[in-house]
Each structure stands twice: as C-alpha cells, then as structure tokens.
User: What shape does this take?
Amino acid sequence: MRDHTLNPFIKYLGRRFFFLLLTYFIALTIVFILPRAIPGNPLASILSRIFQTGQANPELLRSVERTLMEEFGLGKPWFVQYVEFITKALRGDLGTSISSYPKKTLELIIPVIPWTLILLIPSILIAWIIGNTLGAFAGYRRGSLVDRIALNTSLIIGQIPYYWLGMLLIFFLSVKLKIFPGQGGYTQGTIPNLSFSFLLDVLSHYILPSLSIIISALGGWAIGTRMLVVNELDSDYVSFSEHLGVKSKTIFGYVFRNSLLPQVTGLALSLGGALGGALITEIIFNYPGTGYLLFRALSTLDYPLIQGIFVILIASIYLANFFVDFIYAIIDPRIRLGQGES
Assistant: This one.
C-alpha cells in the first residue's frame, strides 16, 4: 500500500521537475536572444567614457573595442556565445557587466535584491489579504449593496494603470502636500546604516511605491476571489449544508477556504516573481531595486546584466511554481494519483 501511494507521488514530482527544467532551458534561450535583437552597440557606454576622458585617439578606441569584444565574447558566432552563456548560467557564473566594467554582474544584482524584496513581498501580501477578504465578503453577499460597492470599487481600482497611480501619489502626497518623499529609497547623500533615523528615512521613502503596488493589485485579487466564491456557492455541499441548518458563518469558512486555493497559486507566483522587481514603479519612484537596475541595463544594452537579472527572476518563478505543485500534491491526493495513473 505504501509503495502504491508513493510511486505516483514521485512520478508526478519527477514529471513536473522535468518540464520545469525544459521550460527553464527554453526561457534561457529567449533571454539570450532578446537583448541581441535590440539594435545598438553594447560597448558604446564604455567607449563613450573613454572618449569623454579626452583619449579620443581613433586607434586607441578601436584597440579597446577589439579587446572588449574578445573579453565579452561578442566577436564569436552566436552559437558559441549561446553555449558559453548556458554553461556559465548553470554554474552560477553570470559574467561581467559591460556598463559597470569591470564589476561582476552579481556584484550589481545582490545589493539591490533586498530593496526589491522589502518593497514587493509585504506589498503583495497586504494586497492579497485585503483583496481576497473583500472579494470573499462581496461574493458571499452577492447582489447586496455591499457586493455592488465592493465590485464596482474593485473594477475601478483594477483598471487604473499603476504607473499613472504612482504619478498621482507623487503629485498629491509628495509635491502638493509634502507628506512623503517621492524619489529614491532614502535621502540622497545618506550613507546606509542600521540606525533608527536611517530606518525611518527608508520607511518614509517606502510608503508611496508600496501604496501604489497595493492599490493597483488589490482590485484584481478582490474580483478573482469574488468570482470563485460565487461559483463555490453553487456547489452541492453548500446547498446540502444550508438544508441541514449549518450556520452561515461555518458555510462561509468552507467556501472561503476552497476559493483560496487558486489564489494561493497566484500568490506563490507573484512572490516568486518578486526578484524581478516592479519595473515601472521603481523607475517612477527612482527606487533602487532590481527593476530599476534592469531599466539601466536595457538602456545601455548591458547583455550580461540583462541576462543575469532574468536568469535569477525566471529561476525564482519556476521554483515557486514547483513548490506550489508540491504543496498541491500533498494537500490533494487526486492531483498526484491522477497524474500517476495517466
């Protein structure tokens, strides 16, 4: 009996892991191709710095360009560059940044990851909790005044472009009312430290970008949960419980828990993608996260930095997806047993 239940479980996870590796390989291929499809010279930033120093000798510039082409492997055929990129990425070697040469790509990515995680993880969790709770109450009281207000509000909030919302927050709460600073992760010129005054400064810069993420995501979670709750209310077990005289509060608890399963998947994927940062939000607020770093890398055609950020982002999303599959297989035997039999 034990082997009968264990083998399908292992087969299910093995199959999921195989497809994860396959899609990760395809994603790495796309990450390699896309930056090179952007027109422009990736070495332009380094050569322009040399030119600005006054050393504008054409022979010197050509010599430096040839040296850099050899160092970054840009003069090699695409197939050779691709094989080197894949093998290095699998070893954890993300290369040297072009725009910040001679710094390693990881030296630029690692310091900004905490800023992004601090911004996104609490914001995503707060939006998820408030949105799902609001959507559940609205769905359970479908057709009521509470439902109409919550639904219409969620629809309006969900349709607001988050970049426009960010600019509105900056205009009203930073420029007009001067309550919160509108740019940066902390006051410019301040040296980061663990003092109480610095943490307060970080918190004051944190509120506006976090608020823009929470508000823009809240509506989507609420609408999704409301739809799931409404569908769940038509289930047979709900009708049967009502005929038995089960308390409304108890029924709502069952409906809410069953409706949350798809939302947990969305939450896990959102948290898994947190390492990629909130690109537009970080650009608008000049927030020092991975999204803003990616924008700088794209603007300078820094191939290794672009690739490095996406390698970490895609890996985190796929691992989160695999973790959700693992948890689902433990919670719901139908998933692993059905997969094993198929």
